[in-house]
Design a protein that fits this description.
This protein is an alpha+beta fold. The chain has a domain of about 290 residues: Orthogonal Bundle (Hypothetical protein af1432). The protein has a four-stranded mixed sheet. The chain has a three-stranded antiparallel sheet with strand order 5-9-6, with helices on both faces. Strands 1-2 form a two-stranded antiparallel ribbon. Strand 7 and strand 8 form a beta hairpin. The protein starts with a strand and ends with a helix. The model has no long low-confidence stretch (mean pLDDT about 95).
């Protein structure tokens, strides 16, 4: 007798159980490709155990999406004003199936090495979410979804969200389902990658009590006043879960600061980008489904090794930096005290360093977001009011934005450049 449910052993969620329909999606070439896409790009060159892939992350996101759906639609957890805005209970099983498959496919459009150099290696205005959208709507994956009785348009819509899926308006229920997957505050994509990445990297920064967090999630109608927030239902949290919500957002800040924005990791990403620009036809990845399917980290790593061994390769220098660990060294990080004295200090240092040591020997990498703190609704225990998270938590306003601005130098000139920089900064202190 054939099995209707199948199991994957997982270090984060123990067992991940999937239905036969979900297994068919997992066995498809586009999903199997994720076995060969590193979750954290070149991070394994700094943290050796960070070799996990998008495959297991996507399974984890699917698993968590089902858990969150069960909690927020549980009868005792639904207020009357919310119950009237969502489908009837007898339809929940079908909606949960669609949600889980959308969660399973949310990352299917990732390039080799995930986020590394995505902006420079795709056509203007295209991100991996756009590729995900195209694969779900116009590839052999589309036919598979239809044979399973699913509408590819709906799966794509929920998987990528309203910022990418712009051809249709999201109703309240569709917005809620998409928020379960990719929501800014409590999206299961975020929950899984923090837990999974911290586990594989070997750090404690990304750990938090996700069981408690999920158990306290609720669909809440938030009466916004002057903060510009929508009054439509959103995923929020019961007051008893506010501390674990704080720990989630603090974990995210720490993981970005200590792991995702690690300067050596960023240096390797620069070298990988420079290699790919020279190695790829026209310096860009193809987004045609049949071509996209053929390129994973395996092909890129093979090409890097081949170019590193071939002195005539156009990308020989870039490949050697990766293979022989000759990465650019971290010369300068923007400090708030420096910025307060001179808001243009990075640009000025970069220009002077390039003039002194040559443009090929100095690189800059930065991420300077201006995003406001996460705001989500909180259900108070005492009087059952729904308030803004910023009203209930003083901690959230104090979690800094994750940002960096780095200057790197070629190893051969690093000592000289480091002395020059020290003298330069000492002069500015006087």
């Amino acid at each position: 007798m054939s099995k209707h449910y199948h199991e994957f052993r997982d270090p984060i969620h123990n067992f991940i159980r999937v239905s036969s329909d979900e297994r068919k999606i997992i066995d498809s070439p586009f999903f199997q490709r994720l076995r060969h896409i590193h979750q954290l790009a070149t991070t394994y060159l700094i943290y050796p155990s960070a070799t996990h892939k998008r495959f297991e992350h996507s399974l984890g996101v699917m698993e968590l999406s089902g858990r969150v759906f069960e909690i927020i639609t549980q009868e005792d957890n639904l207020a009357d004003d919310i119950r009237n805005l969502i489908p009837p209970r007898e339809e929940f099983a079908e909606w949960k199936k669609k949600l889980k498959i959308a969660a399973l496919l949310h990352d299917v459009g990732h390039l080799p090495f995930s986020h590394a150099a995505e902006n420079e290696l795709l056509p203007p205005g295209i991100k991996h979410e756009n590729i995900t959208l195209n694969l779900i709507l116009d590839s052999s994956l589309t036919k598979l979804l239809k044979t399973l009785g699913l509408q590819p348009e709906f799966i794509a819509k929920i998987a990528v969200g309203p910022k990418i899926y712009k051809t249709d308006i999201f109703n309240i229920w569709e917005a809620i389902l998409s928020e379960i997957i990719i929501g800014n505050s409590f999206g299961v994509d975020r929950i899984d990658y923090l837990l999974r990445d911290s586990y594989h990297v070997g750090v404690a920064y990304g750990k938090f009590d996700h069981y408690r967090l999920i158990d306290t999630l609720r669909l809440l109608q938030y009466e916004a006043k002057d903060d510009g927030r929508s009054t439509e239902p959103a995923i929020g949290i019961e007051e008893g879960g506010i501390n674990v919500a704080e720990s989630l957002l603090l974990a995210r800040y720490l993981m970005f600061s200590q792991v995702y924005f690690h300067p050596v990791r960023r240096a390797y990403d620069i070298h990988l980008k420079d290699f790919l620009i020279k190695w790829l036809p026209n310096g860009k990845f193809s987004i045609k489904p049949e071509e996209f399917l053929k390129v994973t980290d395996n092909e890129v790593n093979s090409a890097i090794q081949k170019s590193a061994d071939d002195h005539l390769s156009v990308a020989h220098k870039e490949a050697q930096r990766i293979v022989k660990r000759q990465h650019f060294r971290h010369l300068y990080s923007l400090m708030q005290s420096d910025f307060n004295k001179n808001p243009n200090i990075v640009e000025e240092l970069l220009t002077e360093a390039m003039e002194k040591y040559g443009k090929d020997n100095i690189k800059r990498d930065f991420n300077l977001p201006k995003k406001a703190p996460d705001i989500f609704p909180v259900l108070l225990k005492t009087d059952e009011r729904v308030v803004s998270s910023l009203e209930r938590s003083s901690t959230l306003n104090q979690i800094p934005l994750s940002k960096f601005d780095y200057i790197f130098a070629e190893p051969k000139i690093f000592d000289q450049a480091h002395k020059w920089l020290k003298d330069k900064l000492d002069q500015q202190e006087k």
